[in-house]
């Protein structure tokens, strides 16, 4: 089986230091000898940040739109093209500062991508002074809070612009929003890169100031899994299962067959609403359910699906 390509998502509000971090990450991957590609999303019609990407690294850009709205489908297409056109170890996605991390993750988990990519981590970069002062609209406050809440790694950047006492306040509020994430307080986006492949790293190279709280996480905060499906699914049973597990399951999507129809459907579940879209008969797809949720464990999820009769016993394991 072909090795899956890692995907690492970079989020953070405008001016937080994402592009500087991306440049550092690309240098780090080059030293490791890994094959890298970049997918970059900007709101304007002209790309600015792409200048940090060396010419020998495959780059795809999505301009004049936000992943969370107008070009979510394009991101899935671009990811698929990158994996088909290049032999890669990792793809970095730098999302516009206006993108919601859950929507970015949602775009990365199209059923057609389930066999080729694996979400490795979501990194959120925070401008410490901006976070402290909160001089923005309520909508923007909610957005940057969610960018922190759904991250696996939170980079508290530009700490040279605030005092020690202010940094303590920033750390405390970020800890409250996301106690399970790795957190680093840094300047110029100088993240300890070892945590990307060594989740148990104690970050020994960091100063006491930088590593005085949560530096260890064993798994993604938001997890994804792909479950192959054999046979047809009872629509009512599936929707009852989703209603019972809606607190844990944020998204579910996939290609499925239903007991009340011979066709195959593209299934999407988001914000508590299931949707079914008939797939054209000439399109060849493999039935699969892709799930996104809070701390989900694939084996436990499969067992629940089996108990409800949604997934056959022979499919588990």
From TrEMBL:
Keyword Transport: no
Protein name, as recorded: GTP-binding protein
Keywords of this entry: Chaperone, Hydrolase, Nucleotide-binding
Leader sequence residues: none
One term of GO molecular function: nucleotide binding
Originating species: Alkalihalophilus pseudofirmus
Keyword Hydrolase: yes
GO cellular component, one term: cytoplasm
A matching Pfam family: CobW_C
Entry's family note: Belongs to the SIMIBI class G3E GTPase family. ZNG1 subfamily.
Highest taxon listed in the record's lineage: Bacteria
Residue ranges of every copy of the CobW C-terminal domain listed in the record: 222-309
Catalytic activity, reaction form: GTP + H2O = GDP + phosphate + H(+)
């Amino acid at each position: 089986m072909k090795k899956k390509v890692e995907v690492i998502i970079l989020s953070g509000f405008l001016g937080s230091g994402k592009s500087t971090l991306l440049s550092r990450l690309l240098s780090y991957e080059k030293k490791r000898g890994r094959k890298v590609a970049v997918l970059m999303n900007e709101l304007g019609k002209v790309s600015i940040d792409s200048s940090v990407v060396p010419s020998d690294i495959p780059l795809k850009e999505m301009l004049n739109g936000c992943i969370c709205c107008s070009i979510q489908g394009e991101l899935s297409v671009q990811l698929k093209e990158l994996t088909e056109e290049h032999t890669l170890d990792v793809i970095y996605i730098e999302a516009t500062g206006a993108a919601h991390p859950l929507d970015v993750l949602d775009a990365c988990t199209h059923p057609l991508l389930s066999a080729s990519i694996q979400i490795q981590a979501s990194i959120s970069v925070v401008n410490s002074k901006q976070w402290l002062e909160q001089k923005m609209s309520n909508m923007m406050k909610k957005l940057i809070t969610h960018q922190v809440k759904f991250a696996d790694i939170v980079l508290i950047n530009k700490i040279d612009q605030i005092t020690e006492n202010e940094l303590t306040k920033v750390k405390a509020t970020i800890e409250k929003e996301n106690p399970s994430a790795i957190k680093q307080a840094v300047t110029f986006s100088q993240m300890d890169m070892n945590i990307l492949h060594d989740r148990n790293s104690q970050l020994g190279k960091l100063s006491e100031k930088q590593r005085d709280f949560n530096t260890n996480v064993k798994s993604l905060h938001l997890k994804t899994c792909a479950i192959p499906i054999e046979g047809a699914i009872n629509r009512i049973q599936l929707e009852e299962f989703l209603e019972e597990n809606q607190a844990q399951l944020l998204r579910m999507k996939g290609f499925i067959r239903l007991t009340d129809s011979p066709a195959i459907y593209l299934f999407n579940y988001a914000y508590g609403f299931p949707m079914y879209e008939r797939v054209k008969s000439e399109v060849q797809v493999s039935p699969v359910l892709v799930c996104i949720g809070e701390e989900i464990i694939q084996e436990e999820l499969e067992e629940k699906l089996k108990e409800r009769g949604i997934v056959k016993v022979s499919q588990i394991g």
